[in-house]
Structure of TetR family transcriptional regulator:
Amino acid sequence: MSSASRGDLTTRARIRDGAVECFAREGFSVSVRTIAEHAGVSPGLVIHHFGSKARLREECDTHVRGVITEVKTQTVEEASGAFMLQQMAEIEQYGPVLGYVLRSLQSGGVLAADFFELMVEDVERFMAVGVEAGTVASSRDPAARARYLTSSALGSLMLHTTLHHTGAEPDFGQVMQEWIEAYMLPALESYTEPVLLDRTLLDTYVAHAGGGAGDEGGTGTGDD
Amino acid sequence: MSSASRGDLTTRARIRDGAVECFAREGFSVSVRTIAEHAGVSPGLVIHHFGSKARLREECDTHVRGVITEVKTQTVEEASGAFMLQQMAEIEQYGPVLGYVLRSLQSGGVLAADFFELMVEDVERFMAVGVEAGTVASSRDPAARARYLTSSALGSLMLHTTLHHTGAEPDFGQVMQEWIEAYMLPALESYTEPVLLDRTLLDTYVAHAGGGAGDEGGTGTGDD
DNA sequence: CAATACATTAAACGCATGTTCAGGCTGCTG
DNA sequence: CAGCAGCCTGAACATGCGTTTAATGTATTG
């Protein structure tokens, strides 16, 4: 336990952090040898410390999850747009973590689902605040809307990454910037000015699906 | 050439079709041995016919691309909503192809980019028709909007697939149905009734970024 | 019927992978 | 100093991969 208390500069931690970087850069099929070389150790030592590649992956998952919740807590405590922007400016600092999350989102797995749910909760809370402030419209199903918005944004970001950075070393700062440049305007436009001028589609679907099968996620339908 | 003229029931074609299924079900890391077993032949024969796994993959790409353009041509010729719905009902028929495309979208590659551009073109044309008919609002940048809408929908579908069907054998009919059930209502709602009641964000962004890059679409913002 | 070309297979090759093993090195403890 | 325990390495092992090779069967053709 002495090594753990001494901080994070143990060889174990160095391997772990290096592994996060490698996983982010080259995907989860990166070899143990590459990870070992990146940390300046032998492949055997990686296994000696973590038991197996799968367990190393798990440890990376929990570590990344920890970083995320830490940042999230900070953000919630500050809860200011300025801090949020500052975070986005420092996004390069979290490059490996962001890359790791994106790789997880591509590959599936527990961390990906957890992260998605975390984002959904954030978005739902954020939207609720906007609704109360009068800047955001209320929804028939706030939870579903939050899931939809999260899924669209995250999925779009994923797609952009895979399509335009097929190389093994994507720069996530650049990816993010490209993505914002390409989609920010149409997104804001679509969310501010209705895309569909004809209400028929929505009304039809609401009459059809809303009457027959209500969803069980019972936060109730939002009213004005 | 006699074998090619006899139709598609050659061993080569059987292997190819089986490979598309395998790639769709298990991803592109599926082994040649699995593909061979699926087609009821030896691994060596697969290589003998296609030269290498990479070339087999290419052939699958072009084949899938062919199926897509064929279906697309039919759809354009018919161009009726009824036919479109019929196609969606028969979507299970195209399960392997759809799965293959989704895998491509996850892994990147030429087919993925091609398919995305194809979809963007379709969406842009479709939206233009709607704008002329008065059912769809005009956009400051129709091309960017088409890209955004396509990216959101496709990305969301991808994300849903990877998150909820982490198993090796996803049923794409079911995936599609789940996706529609989860996201159709909030999507229609968001596109029909503006999400953001405050125009500040949009106006700010337009003033900031729109000053540099002008819009060429410009039939006006088309609101009341 | 003999010859030729093709379809097909079983076995093996070379390689990269994750993992194991036996031992060497270092630092602490008696 | 002797000994022990941990960190660490280099080499080896087992496995699965894509691919090659030699040989077998099977038609078609002269």
